[in-house]
């Protein structure tokens, strides 16, 4: 069954295949709950101009809930195969550093084809919002959904991982008794286990906990998270550099092929996951606030 929604861009139609959302097994970023947490918190921190623009750009069936479509970009690979390379960055093994000029390219070597380049591209597209002479050349609804998702992705440490293991996708591990790969541990397992152990499997309680940290123990860091140097609208390279550092310090550390990851790994890594979710939410809101303030 297909559900078709005509977007306000006129002739542009986004086709959502509902069944795909329920059974598609692969992901290209935080899992569904991770992206939901990021987008739900971000939308609550929008200024009036950004909130109005997001409401305008979201399809009617989303009922002004950005988080309901925050994983959309993971589910359009079949339709937009070119978008797969835009979810991550491969960096040289063991250097634990990121360079846009060195690393932001796809497997064919095309420059700018990485999550950082995608964030810059879709930010530029959204800056045409409200400018009738230029905005119609872009699908700004899709630009909003891609940008919201990719700002989440660039904060997932293993989306700026090592080339040889594809960001932990080829490192087989066990999460407690379940066989998985290291990348999936960071996409889903840590968040799911936290929900089960601390939030009664209720993602809304997880959202509240991250929000409380943003307004509480992280509050003195929020302005630094929001700021971009040189008055840029977005600054994903800073986020990517943080992610490869976190990948080396937390995700890859003490993990080898076949490792069994249990409480020690979970409890020591959960604070890093919480922090990256909070930073992603703050930065998504800040980016959208700057974009639509300038529109």
UniProtKB/TrEMBL annotation:
InterPro entries given in the database record: PLipase_C/P1_nuclease_dom_sf, S1/P1nuclease
GO molecular-function terms, A-Z: metal ion binding; nucleic acid binding; RNA endonuclease activity; single-stranded DNA endodeoxyribonuclease activity
Keyword Disulfide bond: yes
GO BP field: DNA catabolic process
Enzyme Commission code(s) on record: 3.1.30.1
Similarity section: Belongs to the nuclease type I family.
Record-given protein name: Aspergillus nuclease S1
Gene name of the encoded protein: LOC109716757
């Amino acid at each position: 069954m297909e559900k078709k929604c005509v977007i306000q861009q006129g002739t542009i139609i986004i086709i959502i295949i509902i069944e795909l959302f329920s059974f598609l097994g692969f992901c290209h970023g935080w899992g569904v709950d991770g992206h939901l947490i990021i987008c739900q918190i971000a939308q609550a921190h929008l200024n009036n101009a950004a909130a109005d623009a997001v409401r305008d750009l979201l399809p009617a069936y989303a009922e002004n809930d950005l988080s309901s479509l925050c994983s959309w970009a993971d589910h359009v690979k079949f339709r937009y195969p070119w978008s797969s390379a835009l979810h991550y960055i491969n960096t040289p093994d063991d250097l634990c550093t990121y360079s846009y000029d060195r690393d932001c390219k796809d497997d064919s070597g095309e420059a700018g084809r990485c999550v950082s380049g995608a964030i810059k591209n879709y930010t530029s597209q959204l800056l045409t919002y409200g400018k009738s002479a230029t905005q119609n050349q872009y699908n700004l609804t899709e630009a909003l959904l891609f940008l919201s998702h990719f700002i989440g992705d660039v904060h997932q440490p293993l989306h700026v991982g090592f080339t040889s293991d594809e960001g932990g996708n080829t490192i087989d591990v066990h999460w407690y008794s379940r066989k998985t790969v290291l990348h999936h541990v960071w996409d889903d397992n840590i968040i799911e286990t936290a929900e089960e152990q601390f939030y009664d499997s209720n993602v809304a309680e997880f959202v509240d906990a991250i929000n409380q940290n943003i307004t509480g123990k992280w509050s003195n860091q929020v302005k630094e998270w929001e700021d971009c140097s040189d008055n840029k609208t977005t600054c994903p390279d800073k986020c990517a550099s943080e992610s490869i550092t976190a990948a080396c310090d937390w995700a890859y550390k003490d993990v080898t092929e076949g490792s069994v990851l249990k409480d020690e790994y979970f409890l020591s890594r959960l604070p890093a996951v919480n922090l990256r979710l909070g930073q992603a939410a703050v930065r998504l809101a800040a980016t959208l606030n700057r974009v639509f303030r300038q529109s």
